[in-house]
Amino acid sequence: MTVIGWIIFLVSNAIVISLTTFCFYRVFSIPEEHMHATLDIDTKDLHDEEEDEEFNADEMKL
Hints:
Layout: H1 3-28, H2 49-61
């Protein structure tokens, strides 16, 4: 392999390894304050009791 071939090979491998290391570091070092349980996430598909009562009252009128 020529010298330029070795340079391209080493630089490309160094980039791939450093990017992989950086991504693993970011994934495994997430601060606890940013982690949310499934129940903490508001999906906005559940109604409050007041909204349910209004919804049921509107259905009765129809």
